Each structure stands twice: as C-alpha cells, then as structure tokens.
Fold:
Amino acid sequence: MNGLNPNLSSINQIADQYLKGKGRPEQVDTNKGPSFREILNEKRGVKQTNELKFSKHASSRLDSRNIELSANQIERLLEGTSKAENKGINDSLVIVDDLAFIVNVPNKTVITAINQNESENNIFTNIDGAVIA
Structure:
C-alpha cells in the first residue's frame, strides 16, 4: 500500500478518520453575520434597505436634509423601482410624496435624493423614465 496505513483499506475510511467520522466536511453555517456583498457595500458607503441600496451621495443628501424615510415610503420606493424595472427603464425618476429619487434600476441603487420643496427648477436629466409611487 506504499506508505498508507494498512488498517485503513479505503478512501472512505481515511476520510472518516480525518473528517471526524462524518465522511464529509462539516457544513458551514452561511447565515451567520453579514454577507460579502453587505460588507462591500458598507465599505463603499452604500446603505441597503431590503433590495434597494442608497449610494453614498444619496445617503449624504438624506442626512444633510434630515430626511428620514418611513417604512411606507421605502416600500413605495421599492414598488416604483420594480415598476420601472418591469418597463425596461434603466435610470428612473421615482417620486414618493414630496421626495424625488434618481434610481439606477438594474443595480437597484438610489443615486440621489431631492426634496422637491427645496429644488429650484425641478429639472431632472439623464433619466429614461419616471414613476410616481
């Protein structure tokens, strides 16, 4: 057997010995702690809400204007993004109450947030669709 332990006659016996008798590696619980994507987004300064992420710019806009989104507003923003995705929109203006959001739909990322009461001329560029949620 060329250097193998003569008491172990099969690969399964060897695996059982080295893998604590289970015959296979222990299953790793992947539900512990944040995912790689969550850690990466955190390091990039991207906040994530359910399936929607807020870029660093959008987060700073909301923070500087003391705007806190309610659960209902976040849900409507998610629904508006989903509607834009269903229509094939890439960069959408999503209006929720008096707030306007520019959302990169394929990445599900809010690029910027604007309070319409503070906006001077309400002109939005570089979008290919709009949703009122």
User: Anything to note?
Assistant: The helical segments are 11-18, 36-44, 56-64, 71-86. The longest strand covers residues 109-115. The chain has a mean pLDDT of 80.
